[in-house]
User: Fold this.
Amino acid sequence: MTIGVDIEKMYEAYDAGYQVFLENWLVKREVALDLMKQNLKPQAPGVSVLSVGAGPGDFDVQVIRTMLSSKPEDFKLRYVAVEPNPKHRRRYEQKIMTPEFSNVDLQIYPEQVENFQTTEKFDIIHYTHCLYHMPGHEKQIILQGMKMLKDDGFIIVTLATADAVVFETINKYTAITGQGFTDVQQMLQMEQMQSFIDELGLSYELVNYPESLDIKLCFEKDSAQGKALLDFFCQGDSSILTLEQKKEILDILISNINEQDGRKLVASNAATMVIPRANN
Assistant:
């Protein structure tokens, strides 16, 4: 696949910011993992999982371990990942293609998520913090996912909720610059996702939970990691901001800080939705 220079730079910048984000994110992965275990109804000869927008693989490592411990011993595990960012895919392969997972039937596709097609059927399809980047395709993606589920299969969607501070900083950055990786007017929050699912007439279970992010790096002078983290909060290049404009972004973060044990925490609250296969 040939990637344009601008897209390649975007992928590289997003990957750098996301790595710093992951290192400072107080995330509750166990919520989604527990929902997977509770709802899984494996059918012989194996369990099949589709990870959409799989990222660099941090969460998928945990999902695979959970599935290996939850499935019947004689069942095989088939794990399919879709990730268009080549930087993420390289990290993914380093984490997943290890002796620990040598018995997992793993396949990684480089397609854009909205373009991915397969005749396979899955027990679980999960969209974990990825649907922000597919504005206008949300309903199509969920309906497409429904067609790829086994009879007792289900979709899991995890997204930030509207009170996550990142939406406010992205909004400010876009208002200041007119630029950004994401159209802030269409950037998906879980509350909007609920409305989409309601419009589709699908049933679901929703669990909300608090998460936070340590942002102290954003205030370290001449810090490459701090710049990468601020880029993530902007979903764009913070270096194009004037000092006054940068202060506007930082002031939003400062106004939302909760200091704990030397950390500067801001809300990054999330919710996970389980959508069982619709019975037509």
The two ends are 38 Å apart (CA to CA).
